[in-house]
């Protein structure tokens, strides 16, 4: 009897974990043209999804070469192009994957600055669940689409 109670409690605690969270700060006004700073260390599908979702909102997208330097847990992107004059916003992004029974996106951050990179215009951050929380196994493509939708003033329904 005691053994079955112990196993039941152990199972209950193992299935709980920290839930996912996200924070969103919208643009005050949607940009007409964004320049996306390519992050080479992030899966290529993330860039493709970001571009297609902005384009779904009739926002022109141009990509720019960039280096993302990680220091003290934060990325400091450096643009390798000065072709930002036609951009209403510069979009940066990062995403991390972890392994736990399967590969899952544990973190994503998309943020936009003005073309001088001095003022943050919008950002969306997703932090996946931890522990034995099966809710962390989300569709990464759908989550990136949702984050882009939510930073825009009137987002499209992304089916999530």
Q: What descriptive keywords fit this protein?
A:
160 residues; alpha/beta; Rossmann fold; seven-stranded mixed β-sheet; 24% helix; globular; signal; Lipoprotein
Structure description:
The chain has 160 residues and is of the alpha/beta class. It has one domain: Rossmann fold, CATH 3.40.50. The chain contains three helices and seven strands, in the order H-E-E-H-E-E-E-E-E-H. The chain has helices at 2-15, 44-56, 140-151, and strands at 21-25, 33-38, 60-71, 74-79, 89-100, 102-113, 120-127. A seven-stranded mixed sheet has the order 1-7-6-5-2-3-4. Strand 6 and strand 7 (120-127) form a beta hairpin.
What is the structure about, briefly put?
This is Lipoprotein. It contains three helices and seven strands, in the order αββαβββββα.
- How many domains? The number is 1
The CATH topology is given as Rossmann fold
Shape label: globular
**In order across it, which strands form the biggest sheet?**
1-7-6-5-2-3-4
Number of distinct beta strands = 7
According to CATH, what is the class? Alpha Beta
Q: Give me the number of helical elements.
A: 3
Low-confidence stretches: 4-17
Gyration radius, rounded: 19 Å
Give the proportion of residues in helices: 10-25%
Q: Sheet bearing the most strands, described? A: 7 strands, mixed
Proper CATH architecture: 3-Layer(aba) Sandwich
Seen as an oligomer or otherwise, the chain set is single chain
Mean pLDDT: 80
- Per DSSP, what share of the residues sits in E-state strands of 2 or more residues? 35-45%
Distance between the termini: 43 Å
**Helix-strand topology string:** HEEHEEEEEH
Structural class from helices and strands? alpha/beta
